[in-house]
Amino acid sequence: MNKTLILTVEDDRPVRNLIVTTLKTHDYKYLTAENGNEAVMEAASHNPDIILLDLGLPDMDGIEVIKRIRTWSNMPIIVISARSEESDKIEALDAGADDYLTKPFSVEELLARLRVTERRLKLMRSGTEAGAPIFINGDLKIDYAAGCAYLKGEELHLTPIEYKLLCILSHNVGKVLTHTYITQQIWGSSWEKDIASLRVFMATLRKKLETDPGSAQYIQTHIGIGYRMLRVD
C-alpha cells in the first residue's frame, strides 16, 4: 500500500468517484470531502500528504480553503478545476496552491502530477531543499553557504539577481511559482516593469543552465503564469 495519504475535495460525485477509483487502483490511501468546511476539518484532523482541491465548492470558494490551510500548513495542494482562465490559475497559485490541473483531465496526467508532488515531498522531508546547505539536481549543484552554483562541476558565473532567481526556484523545486511571487521575492513589488525584467533575467539564466536551448531541462515556463524548476533524475 502506498503510504501517501491524499484528501480529495470534490462535490461532483462522478468526478470524485473517478479520482477515488484512480487512487484505489494505484494503492494510495485517501480521504474525501464534499465542501470547504469539511475539507479544512479533514486537513486539520488527518494531516494528509497531498490535497486535491476543486474550487467550485457549495459552501465556500476553493481559494478560501487554500488560504485557511496556508495559515497553519504547507501541505501540497493540487487544484483540479473547470476554471481554465489564466487569472484563475494565478489567483490559486498566489493563494498558495502548488499545482493546477484543468478539467477535463486524464487519469495519466493526474497520476503524473501526484508523482511530481510526491518527489517534492520526499525532498522536503529528507532536508535536501531550503534547509540544506547543498542543493543537487542532476548536474546542477548550489552551495547556499558559499553563494555559488555549479553545472557539471564547473562554476556558473551568475549575476546577483540570476543567483537569487536560481535559489528561489531550487527552494521550491517542482512547484509552479507565479510572476508576482518571484518579483516580490526579488524586488519587493510586482510592477509590470518588474515582470518584464524577470523575463529577461530568466532568459539569461536559462542560457547558462540549459545545454539544449529547445528543451526545458531545469526551468519550465508556464506561459502567462510563471516558472517551475523541474526535478532532474
From TrEMBL:
Positions of modified residues (4-aspartylphosphate): D54
Record keywords, A-Z: DNA-binding, Phosphoprotein, Transcription, Transcription regulation
Binding region for DNA: 132-231
Keyword Phosphoprotein attached: yes
InterPro entries cross-referenced by the UniProt entry: CheY-like_superfamily, OmpR/PhoB-type_DNA-bd, Sig_transdc_resp-reg_receiver, WalR-like, WH-like_DNA-bd_sf
Gene3D superfamilies hit by this protein: 3.40.50.2300, Winged helix-like DNA-binding domain superfamily/Winged helix DNA-binding domain
Name of the molecule in the record: Stage 0 sporulation protein A homolog
